[in-house]
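chain below, 256 aa
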Amino acid sequence: MNPAAIAALSQSGVAVEVVEETGSTNADLLARAATLSGPLLLVARQQTAGRGRAGRSWLSSSEGSLTFSLAWHFAGGLPRLTGLPLAIGVALADTLERLGVQVGLKWPNDVLRDGDKLAGILIETQAASQGGVWAVIGIGLNLLMPDELEAQIGRSVASLPWLARMDRDELMAALLDGLAGALREFERAGFAAFAARWNLRHAWQGETVTVLDGGTVLHEGSAAGVDDAGRLLLDTPEGRITVLAGDVSLRVKGAE
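prediction:
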């Protein structure tokens, strides 16, 4: 990938850097947050220590994955970022749809295709010296999934072989434009502007699900989408409840 080509193809005005290999693009941007003067996209051709939610590893291959992070400054405090991972999911889904791929969304931060995980989102924050916070939005997107990597992951995962044939600079520019546009919309209106679009793509709408935290069952019920704050709506025998937690897994009841 060529950073100058990505920047030229993009309408976002975001600076772009590409590195051959790094441990984690999120960690790299967090380490540089104090020196950043504007939004920055960092793409790694190979990422060796990618991270997912709750400290999990994100495994990827240089040929079959896109791994990148986008640093974005928000003037408000952390409460203003409520629902941001879900908004990023909508941005990815909207962009992929424009490229001819239909996907679903799983609360709080997964993009699914045919029920399998296609992309993951990890957002980390750091206080900004100029006030507000830097949000570092890390994304791993599967394009091709070699058998040996899928065996390492230990479960079926989705891929996008059709998009894998697309010019990578054009694909990255399209994703950057979608993300930058969504972030500007989020700055103006928060997650409420995305809630309806998220619910339209809710992969497990009406399914009986189990909400877990550290392996402990917190709730069971029927998944009913999200509210304007990005909280999961769960219909239980005791009535509808809302769930908002940073380290919660959502699984179809009975699934491994």
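The chain has two domains: 3-200, 208-252. The domain at 3-200 is CATH 3.30.930.10 (BirA Bifunctional Protein; domain 2).
thats it, cya
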